[in-house]
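Two proteins, back to back. First:
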Amino acid sequence: MAKETKKLSDSGNSENDKILIVEDDKYTRLIIEKLLTKNNYQVFSATNGQEALDIINNKNPKVIIADWNMPVLNGLDLCKTVKGNAQFKTIYFILFTAKISLDDRVKGLDAGADDFLIKPTENEELLARVRTGIRVVNLQNELTKTEHDRALVEMACTMGHKISNPLNSLSFSLKALEDKLSSKQLKQLDEELNIAKLSIEKINKLVNELIRLEKPEMVDYNSDTKMIKLD
């Protein structure tokens, strides 16, 4: 049965640093749980790969430590499944195994494993590899956010310039129309002309915000959609 062990961070590790242990041996699983919890990680555990998939879908851990040999779904097949999923492929996957042959290591790497822990392992080595995994995932997330933000800025700037050209034409056309109208006609169309001018001003403000966007911030538009915050 899947299990969760929590401890809030009071040192260097973030409460959001979630680690999933997938190990069918109760004693080994308990030792790793206690070690990671003591070091302020949020720990989840499963006894096989199938249980692990449910936890991954709900908790999205940063690091998975999975035994190679398990019932139902072994660590190697779990690794292939995780790394084959676009949503979870950046999870740092550590295969925990007594297999040390070159052929086994190649199989693990081909499955997408990021690292190996050879049984039995020292506590400090396990913690060091977990810290490495978290650093790698954090760097990947930062890079993804940077690329995402840059794409948003480029898109916003492009849209701003694309809107600006027809907006300028509209503004000039409205001014030319006003010049051609008589005083009586201007008075009759005063409300409509003011609405048109106000709309042009609002669109022009939007154009300037799009062009000058530097640090895009996403806000909720509705339950399923986000939008760029501009004001």
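And the second protein:
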Amino acid sequence: MAGGSTLDRMSETSAAPAASRLPALNWGDASRSVIQLRYGDLDAMGHVNNARYAEFLEVGRMGLSREVGGQADDRSVLARLEIDYVRDIRQGQEVAVDTLVERVGRTSWTSVALILADGVPCAFARSVQVRVDEQGVPRALPEDFASRVAHRSVR
């Protein structure tokens, strides 16, 4: 077949739309969490299973929380998670998650994250977390929350 295989053409044509799904943000200010890949993260084809990406993002959110002084008694629930998969991650790659706070509300905050493999973006995600009390009822964020995350926020 002239022009290479179908897979080659798909890769060439999908690169531009994939890159357009990655917002140009101040990623240099992000909180970085390094991910240790495990054999169980891989599927039969040697790719990281797409469900593992959500776990990597959780590691990133927890790293950011520790970094900005999150307390052990703080409770929050994940209310929304969106993931745009851009390219696969394979065994042997160095994986990291860069996380920024995009918005702070009264009881919730939105974060954005990039999952990178060998420094190349593989996924973009947006999540909303809601602070709750012991009964699961939303409660106000601490008054100083916005100032604590300011250095790790989207500008």
